[in-house]
Design a protein that fits this description.
The protein is built from 10 helices and no strands.
């Protein structure tokens, strides 16, 4: 077994364990408690945990090859990458609208705030920091960095793009949300391949998360 194969197997094993844990957590989640997630310290703790569980393995698995495997470098072909980002957002919105015909995606995910809770501005600010910065750093480094990098060597670039995108969706532990998330993961992987960098994906991922949270509040703070 080559070094790349060993590293890919370790990456797939970590991903498999986290996917199983996510579906168990979704099945046992307290939906009432989730409605206040952004107004306590839960989101910040979750973002920090993701940074540890995903970011550290990504760094260790790509050690010595941060530019090539992790994609930690200046992005190229920004125009083409930007068009992919736009396509990602439009596609996710269309697929979300389609899947919403079969159920409530927001209810399935259960963490987006539904209304403003006064007196918790600081907690909300840190929660927004978590989903805008910590989560994108963790998920992009693990899936589009180490994942795409290692799987490209083990299989092929198209195979790595599709597989990493599908696993990214599964790690969220959702059924209705699988298709939009898989599409987003695939498009983010294409952005990484096109630009040679995970940085555009981090920016798009963070911006999308931020807008999704603000949109869930309907921009009306009660």
């Amino acid at each position: 077994m080559t070094r790349d194969t060993r590293r890919a197997v370790i990456w797939l094993s970590i991903t498999g364990v986290l996917i199983l844990n996510s579906f168990v957590a979704t099945a046992t989640r307290d939906s009432k408690a989730d409605s206040t997630t952004f107004f306590d310290w839960t989101a910040l703790a979750g973002g920090a945990a993701e940074l540890v569980l995903l970011g550290i393995p990504a760094l260790l698995l790509t050690r010595g090859e941060y530019r090539e495997l992790l994609g930690l470098r200046r992005p190229a072909r920004l125009g083409r990458t930007g068009l992919l980002g736009l396509g990602a957002v439009l596609g996710v919105e269309l697929l979300s609208a389609l899947m919403s015909q079969f159920g409530d995606l927001n209810k399935e995910q259960g963490v987006a705030p539904t209304h403003w809770i006064a007196g918790h501005t600081l907690e909300f600010a840190f929660s927004l920091f978590a989903v805008a910065i910590l989560v994108p750093l963790a998920e992009e480094s693990f899936f589009r960095g180490a994942g795409v990098g290692l799987l490209s060597r083990l299989y092929s670039v198209p195979g790595a793009v599709v597989l990493s995108g599908c696993l990214f969706a599964l790690i969220h532990g959702l059924v209705l949300g699988f298709l939009p998330l898989a599409f987003l993961g695939i498009m983010l992987a294409l952005m990484r391949v096109t630009s040679g960098s995970i940085l555009p994906g981090i920016v798009l991922h963070g911006a999308y998360n931020t807008l999704a949270v603000l949109y869930s509040l309907d921009f009306r703070f009660h």
